[in-house]
Amino acid sequence: MTDDTDSRRRADLQAVMTAHAAFYQAFIDRNFGAMTAAWAARLPVACIHPGWGALVGHEAVMTSWRAILANPNAPAVTVDLVDLAVLGDIARVIAYERINDAVLIATNLLAREDGAWKLIHHQSGPTPPPTEYASPVPPHRLN
């Protein structure tokens, strides 16, 4: 790998981690404006919340987040980043979400839109608590 390619790869990884953290920070802060900003505006988007069917399209996804974030009884979430991969203009992030006593596994896809990394897909569902991580990279607590 050339120095330029390696530098670009590191910059992409950092930018994806920052965008991913902004998504969860919007969730934690119950900030609908920040949540909207975390998602792609023009690229196709989809979301599958735990126990929900697939939501496809920007309007359906944002309507779901508006309801979740407006719920005063919505639980707090902490996130452990497990694995991150950048493949050109697409990135895949796997993370454990801890909500109350539940552990969920999430897959988040991000894509470059107008030069910025934005969510295009989020899916989260129950999983047993991790005993060890599959990735050789240790988990990274986002919050």
TrEMBL record:
<dbReference type="Pfam" id="PF13474">
    <property type="entry name" value="SnoaL_3"/>
</dbReference>
<dbReference type="InterPro" id="IPR037401">
    <property type="entry name" value="SnoaL-like"/>
</dbReference>
<feature type="domain" description="SnoaL-like">
    <location>
        <begin position="16"/>
        <end position="124"/>
    </location>
</feature>
<dbReference type="InterPro" id="IPR032710">
    <property type="entry name" value="NTF2-like_dom_sf"/>
</dbReference>
<feature type="compositionally biased region" description="Pro residues">
    <location>
        <begin position="126"/>
        <end position="143"/>
    </location>
</feature>
<protein>
    <submittedName>
        <fullName>Nuclear transport factor 2 family protein</fullName>
    </submittedName>
</protein>
<feature type="region of interest" description="Disordered">
    <location>
        <begin position="121"/>
        <end position="143"/>
    </location>
</feature>
